[in-house]
């Protein structure tokens, strides 16, 4: 399907020396034309390693910003500029700055799903795959974790030696799941393990056989022989079922769709490659350098 436009994209990306990065939540057509696919931690590491002249980021804005923060000389283009992670702006940078002034001994940890302006106010960033290890290595006992209360609660449950202060942010997609959704699918598929993302609420995690990031869920699912229920955005089950059709069951398929992640299309990628649409990301240099510190700390500790 769509082979004509895919061939044109492949031709155009070679001609224009452009690297296409895609988060695993992207639609299968976008995964097909990407050079690198993975979770947010993997993409941010790749962005630092590969000194691309130009990157098309198939994902949401904070992912493009992360590439630009790490590789300022790379031209970073968002093919769907309106694709943002709603959670990334659920706390204002001013609020974090005020909190820091009032609580100078507390470490501020930001989930990578935050704007560059928020990263600039924090000590260190984490992704869902690196959060536990990074928070456990921080010297401070008291930690403000922004913005995801569910990921923060998950970290707090695994690291009882830390005092983690939660912000009331959440991913509207994962947070829409309920314990009843998890109980129902477990009852419908007795004995089939459930793997969930830590952005899900704690009462969903209670039913999980495994909790982990996008890449950890994929690793867990592929390491098992039989079926696995996938409790995260449906791009992950789509990705897994491409290779093993029908083996992976999507939990609540009607709820677990990130609208923003689906805004990238073959048409807008092709247009962005040709400079006809999309947005070239620009970040103020002082802000970029401040935001980079928290990402560098993540890469050093992670
Ligand atoms: P990962 O860090 O697991 O890629 O998750 C990113 C994200 O947006 C989850 O909803
Ligand atoms: Fe943001 Fe949730 Fe979409 Fe991930 S799934 S990009 S956290 S809204």
The appropriate CATH architecture of the largest domain is: 3-Layer(aba) Sandwich
**By CATH's scheme, which homologous superfamily of the largest domain applies?**
NadA-like
Along the chain, the helix and strand elements come as HEHEHEHEHEHEHEHEHEHEHEHEHEH
Q: Could you tell me the CATH topology label of the largest domain.
A: Rossmann fold
Strand content: 15-25%
- Which ligands accompany this protein? 1,3-dihydroxyacetonephosphate, iron/sulfur cluster
Shape: globular
Percentage of helical residues?
40-55%
Please report the first level of CATH classification, the CATH class of the largest domain: Alpha Beta
Tally of individual domains: 3
What is the mean pLDDT?
95
**Residue ranges: pLDDT <50 for 5 or more in a row?**
none
The structural class is alpha/beta
Largest sheet: 5 strands, mixed
Query: Count of helical segments?
Result: 14
Physical arrangement of strands within the biggest beta sheet: 2-1-3-4-13
In total, the number of strands is 13
Radius of gyration: 19 Å
What report would you give on this structure?
It is a single chain. The chain has 302 residues and is α/β, with parallel strands linked by helices. It folds into 3 domains: 2-84 and 261-283, 3-Layer(aba) Sandwich (Rossmann fold), CATH 3.40.50.10800; 87-172 and 287-301, NadA-like (Rossmann fold, 3-Layer(aba) Sandwich); 177-250, Rossmann fold (3-Layer(aba) Sandwich), CATH 3.40.50.10800. Helix content is 43%, strand content 16%. The strands form 3 sheets. The protein has a 5-stranded mixed β-sheet with strand order 2-1-3-4-13, sandwiched between helices. A 4-stranded parallel β-sheet has the order 6-5-7-8. A 4-stranded parallel β-sheet has the order 10-9-11-12, sandwiched between helices. Helix 2 links the parallel strand 1 and strand 2. The mean pLDDT is 95. The site of iron/sulfur cluster (SF4) has 14 residues, from loops.
């Amino acid at each position: 399907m769509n082979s004509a436009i895919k061939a044109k994209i492949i031709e155009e990306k070679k001609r224009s020396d452009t690297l296409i990065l895609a988060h695993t939540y992207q639609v299968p057509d976008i995964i097909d034309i990407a050079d690198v696919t993975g979770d947010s931690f993997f993409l941010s590491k790749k962005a630092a390693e590969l000194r691309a002249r130009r990157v098309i980021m198939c994902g949401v804005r904070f992912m493009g910003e992360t590439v630009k923060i790490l590789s300022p000389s790379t031209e970073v283009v968002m093919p769907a500029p309106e694709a943002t992670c709603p959670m990334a702006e659920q706390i204002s940078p001013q609020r974090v700055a005020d909190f820091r002034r009032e609580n100078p001994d507390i470490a501020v940890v930001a989930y990578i799903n935050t704007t560059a302006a928020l990263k600039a106010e924090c000590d260190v960033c984490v992704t869902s795959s690196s959060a536990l290890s990074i928070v456990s290595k921080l010297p401070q006992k008291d930690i403000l974790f922004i913005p995801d209360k569910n990921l923060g609660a998950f970290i707090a449950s695994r690291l009882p030696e830390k005092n983690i202060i939660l912000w009331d942010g959440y991913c509207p997609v994962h947070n829409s799941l309920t314990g009843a959704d998890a109980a129902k699918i477990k009852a419908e598929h007795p004995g089939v393990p459930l793997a969930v993302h830590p952005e899900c609420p704690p009462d969903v995690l209670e039913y999980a056989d495994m909790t982990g990031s996008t890449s950890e869920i994929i690793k867990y699912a592929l390491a098992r022989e039989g079926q696995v229920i996938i409790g995260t955005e449906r791009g992950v089950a789509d990705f897994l079922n491409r290779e093993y059709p029908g083996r992976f069951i999507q939990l609540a398929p009607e709820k677990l769709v990130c609208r923003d992640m689906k805004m990238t299309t073959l048409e807008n990628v092709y247009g962005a490659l040709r400079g006809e649409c999309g947005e070239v990301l620009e970040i103020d240099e002082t802000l970029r350098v401040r935001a980079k510190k928290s990402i560098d700390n993540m890469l050093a500790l992670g």
